């Protein structure tokens, strides 16, 4: 796992290969590679860039009645009398502003214009309307049949309800204006920043302590602590929310510790987010601490520097890029997090939950798109800064660096051990409580144990079927995702020529990291659910879930593959070329076998994340493709909280099993990697 | 070969695409998950060869899904979803009017006013309070009997209600208070109630579940969930507030553009049939065909008499404005205000 994040340090260094003196002619291999670059590039464009662009376009679209292009005539017994366009007639008919009117109802019937079938004092004998606009101006229907543009449609007094004008769309920044003039929504920006910054501070401190204890002390049980620190990665983040309720809710086991204050709101969100972001921060900081230069510490000792001073002047600066990177990763994860605040946020609104509320609760897709755009801003900024910072770390280590090995120090080892016990204890407590709650008959009044909640009978979300769907999806994601990512990374790293195409592919591969899952999901609705889109066929299928998950978790996988490939000499390709061997043969005979452990890491990463993700798929699942983590969310929504806990635990055990298989396979592969050892 | 066909071929190869099978209808529903198997069994026994594929979610989500899929409908029928939602879908021109066989037995107030009706109501569900008796005893508090009682200071922080923006039940409550108390007094009531409400939940059943587990002892929810949880052993009592209660229908309609209209019609026929009514009667106190109504275990007998004269058209037409006002007043107070 440590490998998964580490590569972020070097990847931006990619640029044009050092200019060769002789430019070789593009051969068959080059054309093949270019074709693959374009194919994977096209995949990322279609699964990422286009949907996002489409969503942005849609966020500036507002429903409205095109009063100006609708003509109206009434007959009060002496032939038709023109009232002009609806725009002209609006004040007289008591119509609201075109946008307000469309917000009330997407259709306007003639009955609404002429209540009681009267025009002023006189009874109507007929009404005629015609729409002379385009498709975006709406539709005019009589009895459900759409009229052609410019065609008069006529309705008698009894048919007034059947003469319907449906709202069209106009381009406008109205959604953005509505957003910023609604304090209920803009409050969320501040709230999101508050919980994200708090979480970042706590997580980074805790993760630093934990990583320091593991890398720089001689305390016992390091392997166990390292394993426990990974637990949160194996469960859906909303599990933390559920456990916090069982621990500190109004009927919570440890309610007394809250001293009268409530877990619902910011405290719960921060606590839950610290839980699930902890392993991510820990991995990055542990990697940073692992690569420090022992010679600096020797120098400090030789100069009789105090341990405190050494810590602040040697240890911290050495790990600063790791800490900064961890901080940005935690910040991004928290501000885009949806499961925890959904469960334990109470009335404390945050941006990610706002998107869900707008889309799912209020059917307001345009406003969901607006909040998505708002959420993209901090996520993208954090991402870019992180990239810039990590890119600088490359220069830190010199070839002569000596790896640091900690020496025994009783007091330090003991306090480190104690600290790790507390942190690991808290992580296990969260997991254990969810396990307990899922096994209890009726919380908190009947605490006898039973497996009843694992039957998932009469609950929302799809029960066992959704679990098997998740397994299937995670398997597809792991297999297809690893293949796509690996080939993509190979082309970026080992391709010759067409530097621009490869840099473009690399840029696209880095993008998903900055895109919150919910935003991606919403963008997919807009893009794939459009009937005009030929890719519409995948909407509502397992394929769209697989595509969105592969794309959502692309970046980390890509970076992992790049690191492994960078470690391989480019000479392999050169030698193969000189021996007139096709590049495909090098790839399958040399590159792939050497990098098999990395490919396995990527597959495991994909599998575990596909099992736990909610955000990337919550808008996209269909009846036959309900998913386990989404089922847990829906059960919690419906108040079947124990069922939700049971589903989360099921996911945990599955991921634990996958992890074990991964460990076994890696061990098996270790023998094939024996050549690495001299 | 275009990219589409490659993708489609790949999807087909992997068995990823969920193709519609003959004799299968996709039914979107907001009915409670625990009663779906019963409906499915009854329908499929009557029409062997036709199977139901459920998409079950809360009212808001189902409506949102249908609207999102407007240009590319995935559902054949929407079954058991609030009439106010179906009015919204009808406004978008998404419903296929159809008069099911036996629709004459259904009371007029359960039907869309057009002929043939765009949607048909089969039974009703109504607001109810779920009150945890064990917790009230612990706190030595009386069981509230009316909406007005809920604003008393002793209930501060004990009440949960669904957010009307996302929950059909929540909207039902708000629109009924505006109708019972009148616009001005209605909002004044909600101002007072808001002071006592601990949190607004996403779904309508969650307040009752939270009351059942004692997390928050008073849940503003609906009668079906209350009866269910009491039967499961929750220390709850269902209270019908004295001023009257809001209600809505479980209404059904065919989605325009379905490629399986024949089977969709069969399901609509079943939904108003006598055997279906007998099934509804086990869970719901108020039916579209009143002849089959029977008292429900664990629910107050006066339920039906307390239903307000709900103006659905008014509620649907003013939904956006009401929700906007509600959010302006109560959603903005999103600081961790209540301990």
UniProtKB/TrEMBL annotation, chain B:
Residues 1-22 form the signal peptide. Pfam families: SBP_bac_6. The keyword Signal applies. GO terms for cellular component: outer membrane-bounded periplasmic space. Gene3D superfamilies: Periplasmic binding protein-like II (3.40.190.10). It comes from the Bacteria. GO terms for biological process: thiamine transport. Keywords: Signal. One of its GO terms (molecular function) is thiamine pyrophosphate binding. InterPro entries: ABC_2-AEP-bd, Ferric-bd. PANTHER family: ABC TRANSPORTER SUBSTRATE-BINDING PROTEIN, THIAMINE-BINDING PERIPLASMIC PROTEIN-RELATED. This is Putative 2-aminoethylphosphonate ABC transporter substrate-binding protein. It comes from Xanthobacter tagetidis. The lineage of its organism: Bacteria, Pseudomonadati, Pseudomonadota, Alphaproteobacteria, Hyphomicrobiales.
């Amino acid at each position: 796992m440590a490998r998964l994040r580490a590569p972020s340090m070097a990847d931006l260094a990619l640029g044009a290969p050092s200019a060769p003196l002789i430019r070789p002619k593009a051969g068959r291999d080059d054309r093949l590679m270019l074709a693959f670059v374009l194919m994977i590039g096209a995949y990322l464009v279609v699964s990422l860039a286009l949907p996002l662009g489409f969503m942005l376009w849609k966020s500036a679209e507002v429903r409205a009645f095109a009063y100006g292009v609708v003509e109206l005539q009434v007959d009060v017994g002496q032939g038709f009398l023109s009232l002009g366009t609806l725009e002209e007639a609006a004040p007289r008919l008591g119509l609201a502003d075109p946008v307000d009117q469309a917000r009330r109802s997407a259709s306007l019937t003639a009955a609404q214009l002429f209540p009681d079938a009267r025009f002023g004092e006189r009874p109507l004998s007929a009404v005629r309307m015609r729409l002379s606009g385009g498709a975006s101006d709406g539709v005019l229907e009589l009895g459900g049949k759409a009229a052609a543009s410019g065609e008069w449609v006529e309705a008698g007094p009894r048919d007034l309800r059947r003469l319907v004008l449906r709202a069209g769309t106009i381009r406008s920044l109205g959604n953005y204006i509505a957003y910023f003039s609604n304090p209920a929504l803009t409050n969320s920006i501040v709230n999101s920043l508050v919980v994200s910054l708090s979480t970042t501070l706590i997580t980074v401190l805790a993760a630093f302590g934990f990583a320091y204890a593991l890398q720089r002390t001689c305390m016992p049980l390091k392997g166990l602590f390292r394993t426990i620190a990974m637990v949160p990665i194996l469960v859906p983040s909303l599990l933390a929310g559920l456990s916090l309720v069982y621990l500190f809710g109004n009927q919570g086991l440890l309610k007394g510790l809250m001293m009268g204050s409530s877990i619902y709101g910011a405290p719960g969100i921060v606590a839950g987010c610290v839980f699930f972001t902890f392993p991510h921060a820990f991995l990055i900081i542990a990697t940073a601490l692992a690569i420090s230069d022992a010679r600096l510490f020797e120098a400090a000792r030789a100069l009789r520097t105090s341990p405190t001073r050494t810590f602040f002047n040697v240890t911290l600066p050495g790990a600063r890029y790791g800490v900064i990177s961890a901080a940005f990763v935690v910040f991004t994860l928290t501000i885009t997090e949806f499961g925890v605040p959904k469960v334990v946020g109470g009335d404390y609104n945050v941006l990610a939950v706002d998107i869900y509320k707008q889309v799912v609760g209020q059917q307001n897709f345009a406003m969901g798109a607006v909040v998505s755009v708002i959420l993209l801003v901090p996520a993208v900024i954090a991402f870019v800064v992180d990239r810039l910072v990590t890119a600088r770390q490359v220069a830190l280590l010199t070839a002569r660096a000596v790896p640091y090995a900690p020496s025994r120090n009783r007091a330090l080892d003991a306090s480190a051990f104690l600290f790790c016990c507390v942190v690991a204890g808290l992580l296990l407590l969260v997991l254990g409580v969810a396990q307990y709650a899922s096994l209890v008959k009726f919380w908190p009044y009947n605490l006898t144990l039973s497996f009843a909640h694992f039957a998932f009978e009469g609950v929302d979300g799809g029960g066992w079927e959704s679990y098997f769907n998740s397994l299937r999806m995670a398997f597809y994601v792991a297999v297809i995702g690893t293949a796509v990512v690996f080939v993509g990374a190979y082309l970026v790293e080992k391709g010759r020529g067409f530097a621009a195409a490869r840099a473009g592919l690399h840029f696209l591969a880095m993008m998903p990291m900055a895109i919150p899952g919910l935003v991606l999901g919403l963008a997919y609705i807009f893009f794939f659910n459009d009937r005009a889109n030929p890719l519409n066929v995948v909407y509502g299928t397992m394929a769209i879930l697989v595509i969105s998950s592969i794309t959502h978790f692309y970046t980390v996988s890509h970076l992992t593959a790049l690191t492994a490939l960078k470690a391989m000499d480019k000479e392999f390709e050169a030698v193969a070329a000189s021996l007139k061997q096709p590049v495909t043969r090098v790839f399958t005979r040399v590159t792939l076998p050497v990098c098999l452990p990395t490919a396995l890491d990527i597959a495991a990463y994909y599998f575990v994340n596909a099992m736990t993700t909610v955000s990337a798929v919550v808008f996209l699942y269909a009846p036959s493709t309900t998913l386990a983590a989404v089922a847990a969310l829906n059960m919690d929504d419906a108040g079947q909280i124990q069922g939700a806990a049971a589903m989360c635990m099921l996911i945990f055990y599955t991921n634990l099993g996958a992890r074990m298989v991964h460990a076994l396979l890696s061990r098996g592969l270790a023998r094939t990697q024996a050549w690495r050892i001299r | 070969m275009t990219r589409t066909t490659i993708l489609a071929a790949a999807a087909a190869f992997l068995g990823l695409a969920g193709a519609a099978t003959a004799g299968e209808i996709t039914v979107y529903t907001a009915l409670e998950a625990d009663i779906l198997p019963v409906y499915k069994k009854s329908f499929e026994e009557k029409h062997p060869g036709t199977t139901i594929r459920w998409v079950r979610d809360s009212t808001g989500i189902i409506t949102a899904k249908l609207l999102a899929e407007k240009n590319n409908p995935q559902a054949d029928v929407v079954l058991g979803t609030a009439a106010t939602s179906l009015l919204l879908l009808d406004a978008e021109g998404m419903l296929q009017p159809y008069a099911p066989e036996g629709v004459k037995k259904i009371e007029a107030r359960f039907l869309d006013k057009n002929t043939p009706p765009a949607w048909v109501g089969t039974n009703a569900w109504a607001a109810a309070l779920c009150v945890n008796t064990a917790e009230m005893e612990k706190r030595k508090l009386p069981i509230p009997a009316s909406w007005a009682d809920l604003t008393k200071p002793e209930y501060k922080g004990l009440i949960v209600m669904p957010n009307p923006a996302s929950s059909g039940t929540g909207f039902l409550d708000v629109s009924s208070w505006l109708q019972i108390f009148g616009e001005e007094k209605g909002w004044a009531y909600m101002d007072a109630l808001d002071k006592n409400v601990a949190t607004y939940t996403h779904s309508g059943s969650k307040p009752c579940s939270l009351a059942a587990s004692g997390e928050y002892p008073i849940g503003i929810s609906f009668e079906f969930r209350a009866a269910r949880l009491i039967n499961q052993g929750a220390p709850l009592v269902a209270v019908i507030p004295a001023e009257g209660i809001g209600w809505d229908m479980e209404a059904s309609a065919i989605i325009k553009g379905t490629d399986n209209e024949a089977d969709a019609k069969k399901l609509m026929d079943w939904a108003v049939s006598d055997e279906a009514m007998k099934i509804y009667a086990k869970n719901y106190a108020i039916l579209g065909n009143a002849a089959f109504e029977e008292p429900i275990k664990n629910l107050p007998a006066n339920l039906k008499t307390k239903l307000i004269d709900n103006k659905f058209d008014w509620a649907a037409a003013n939904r956006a404005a009401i929700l906007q006002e509600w959010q302006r007043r109560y959603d903005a107070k999103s600081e961790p205000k209540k301990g």
